[in-house]
Each structure stands twice: as structure tokens, then as C-alpha cells.
Amino acid sequence: QTPGTTRTVTFTSSGVTRTARITVPADYDPARPLPVLVSFHGWKETADSMERYTGFDALPAIVVYGQGIENAWEGAPYARTNDGQDLRYVLDLLGGLRSTFTVDPARIYAAGMSNGGGFALKLACQRPDLFAGVASVSGAYYPRTRPPCAPQAVPVLEIHGAKDTWIRYDGGVRHGEEYAGPVAVLTALARRNGGATTPVTTKVNDGVLRLTWAGDSPVDHLRVAATGHVWPRTADIDATQAVWGFLRAQVRPDRP
Per-residue pLDDT for 255 more than 80? Predict the structure, then answer.
């Protein structure tokens, strides 16, 4: 793939033909390992739409926009993949990237929106060994996105609108399944990370509060007062900048 371009790749995973879009920075140099950001769209959305509204293409990283089967990811009640099938897809994607590009194994990240955010946190829960950091925006945290977690800690950022009526801030029920709110999910992850179970709240600006669970591995939450079920890019917060600002600071100390 030519540096500075985005293209769609097709491959087989779990016996199924899958696709993803991959962006390579224009200044890519095989002699210089780059971070990787794997991103996951929301339900009924696509890799193309995730690319458009996040603007991740401008980041100094190899960016992958995953494409879910029938525009959904495992863990949600409407998913068309079995538990573990989309995880296998991610593993196959990362394997292909490592064989094609010079990837920094200490700086592999995941981010997602809504259903994709729930899947990103499922990855943080089940495979914390793979990622230096994970971010979720307006995440949908159904029970199968919150299975028993592996003990290894992973830094997590979650951004959620207080006016979200689709995936409510305090949790609720959709598609016949109960979903958890971000504070409950992050408290559980902070406990897994060996951190505090009660967050410290600070004011970012008039529209955004930051909740931080103290510990060796950061767990942060940004509560956006004025937004609903969106990837916010407003005067109060640009989710793309916030996600990348958090993730790029995370480096796995156990990777060469």
C-alpha cells in the first residue's frame, strides 16, 4: 500500500470473507515503527462512516477501520457473529499488519463508537495483552461485552453524553437486554486494574467533567453535559483529539 493512501483490504477470518479500510500516513518509513489504531463503527454504521466522522486519517499512526458483519460487532444482542469471531477478526487484522508494515508492538490501540465502543471495551477485558490503551465513545455495554476479565491491566478512556437517550448514561434496557452505564463499567475495570473504586471528579470546562479512577493503569471518563448519542466534535470536546491524546500517552512497558 502506498503511504498517504487509504484502501479496503479483503481477507478470510473464521472461514468468512471480511473487509477493513487501512490508512497509512504519508510519511511512513519502514525503518520507523508506527503505532496502530484499530477502530470499530457503531451499529448500522460502516468503516466508511467511522472514517468520515472521526477523522482518524490525520493521525500519525496506521489506522484500521474495521467492518462488522451486517454492520455490527459481537457482544450486542443484534450481532451476527458469535462470541470470539470478531476477536479472531481483530487478531487476523493485526497479524496482516505486522507482516506488511513496521508496527510498534508497544503502541497498539483500539477505539470504538456505540456498539463498536462496547466491543473495544470487551477487547480491553478479554485481551488486555494486545493493547496499550483502549477508548470508547457512547459505548453500549451489554452483558456479553463484560465477561470475566483477564487480570492484566489496560488503560481505558470512555466518553459519554449525559443527554444520550439511545444508550442512557445511567444504563437501561434495549433489544431485550440490560446494558450498564459507563461509571459502573469503568469502576469494574478500575478494580481489575488494581485501582480505586471511587473516582475523583474534576472540571475540564463548563460542558465536560472528568472522572478518574486512581491506580497504576489509568481509567478515565469524560462526561459531556450537552451531547447525546454521538461522536462529539464540539467547542466543549473533540472526541477524536481526546481519544488520541489519551491513547498516544500509553505505551506497553512489557513490549520491546
Answer: no
Residues 203-245: tens digit of each pLDDT:
999 999 999 999 889 999 999 999 999 999 999 999 999 999 9
Q: Distance between CA 65 and CA 61 in Å, rounded?
A: 12
Distance between CA atoms of residues 28 and 228, nearest Å: 37
Mean pLDDT over each residue of the chain, to the nearest integer: 96
Q: How far is CA 95 from CA 18, 71, 83, 109, in A?
A: 14, 23, 20, 14
Residue 19 and residue 233: Cα distance in Å, rounded? Answer: 27
pTM over 0.90: yes
Question: Distance (Å, rounded) from C-alpha 204 to C-alpha 215?
Answer: 20
User: If DSSP codes are grouped into helix, strand and coil, which group holds residue 129?
Assistant: coil
Helix segments in the chain, DSSP class H: 47-54, 85-100, 115-126, 182-192, 239-247
Phi and psi based region of residue 178 (left: phi greater than 0; alpha: psi -120 to 50; beta: remaining): beta
Nearest to 25 by CA among 1, 54, 49, 50: 1
